[in-house]
UniProtKB/TrEMBL annotation:
Keywords noted in UniProt: Ligase
Taxonomy of the source species: Eukaryota, Metazoa, Chordata, Craniata, Vertebrata
Name of encoding gene: UFL1
The species this protein was found in: Nothobranchius furzeri
Residue stretches making up the E3 UFM1-protein ligase 1-like N-terminal domain: 7-267
Molecular function per GO: ligase activity; UFM1 ligase activity
Keyword S-adenosyl-L-methionine: no
PANTHER family referenced in this protein's UniProt entry, alphabetically: E3 UFM1-PROTEIN LIGASE 1
Entry GO terms, CC: endoplasmic reticulum membrane
InterPro entries: Ufl1, Ufl1_N
UniProt name for this protein: E3 UFM1-protein ligase 1
Length: 299
């Protein structure tokens, strides 16, 4: 009898525990996916499924992960690489990267790459190191080295000239950056060589013979002529046929015309002056006809 009563008490205790126990219902993974998909379709939940469909992330989480990866990669990362890391559809990564470029100061999208100022500051420091070593550097070279468009590099490097980059950009050719020391050396060479010229000389000849940087040569030559530190003029502008004419050539030409006129009492056709003159003339167009006419009137 006692044993029966003990069994009843045990069963009552089990029943009581069963009454107060929490009921746990487990859903299969497939059921969970179906429920979440339905909530997303009804716009009651804003999440993005991963490519394998086993996880989902919020748009805010995608943005956080993009910023984290941008930092880890030194301020520059390709959208395709981001998509592989975050493991969601490419369009979601591109949209969030575009939002970051618009909202975050210093971040921008360039040819499918997210780039921020930290990367550009580091790039500018590297460019400055190369510049100080070589004296000049071209944007074209940098485009190949860093796989970035020329216009973008020109704009970003221009902002950092005189700060992170100790150099100057040619005002006529924004595709080249020089150091002040490089410009000073070339200015001294240009002044010395052109001061020694006594006859009209094609500028292209000087570029080929002495290896001057073309745009820098024209800029320095123009500055020296305007300031009067070089006595001469440039005919033909910044073109392949441009010629430097020293003042001494014009004076020698005028002296010969005066001498011929005094000795002979007349002046023949300009072509005859050129053929008979001891003055070296590389082109009849360079013979100063204006001075000849002036002297005829004076005579």
């Amino acid at each position: 009898m006692a044993a029966d009563w003990e069994e009843i008490r045990r069963l009552a205790a089990d029943f009581q525990r069963a009454q107060f126990a929490d009921t746990v219902q487990r859903l299969s993974e497939r059921n969970c996916i179906e429920i979440i998909t339905k909530l997303v379709e009804d716009k009651k939940l804003d999440v993005v499924f991963t490519l394998d469909g086993k996880e989902f992330v919020t748009p805010a989480q995608i943005s956080r992960e993009i910023r984290d990866e941008l930092y880890v990669h030194g301020g520059r990362i390709n959208i395709v690489e981001l998509q592989q890391i975050i493991n969601v559809d490419w369009v979601h990564v591109e949209n969030k990267a575009s939002d970051i470029a618009k909202s975050d100061r210093g971040a921008q999208l360039v040819l499918g790459q997210l780039i921020d100022d930290s990367y550009l500051e580091h790039l500018a420091e590297e460019v400055n190191d190369k510049l100080q070593e070589a004296g000049l550097i071209s944007i074209a070279e940098l485009c190949k080295s860093y796989d970035l468009p020329g216009d973008f590099l020109t704009e970003e490097l221009s902002k950092r000239l005189g700060k992170l980059i100790q150099g100057e950009m040619d005002q006529y050719n924004r595709g080249v950056i020089f150091t002040p020391a490089f410009v000073a050396r070339h200015k001294a060479r240009i002044r010395g060589l052109f001061s020694a010229i006594t006859r009209p000389t094609p500028i292209s000849t000087m570029i080929g013979a002495f290896g001057f940087q073309e745009h820098l040569l024209y800029s320095v030559l123009e500055e020296l002529v305007i300031s009067g530190r070089l006595k001469g003029s440039v005919v033909g502008g910044r073109q392949d046929k441009a010629v430097y004419i020293p003042d001494i050539y014009a004076r020698t030409q005028n002296s010969w015309v005066d001498s011929f006129l005094q000795q002979n009492g007349y002046l023949g056709p300009v072509s005859s002056f050129i053929s008979e003159s001891s003055v070296a003339v590389i082109s009849p167009d360079l013979f100063n006809v204006t001075n000849v006419v002036t002297r005829l009137r004076a005579a």
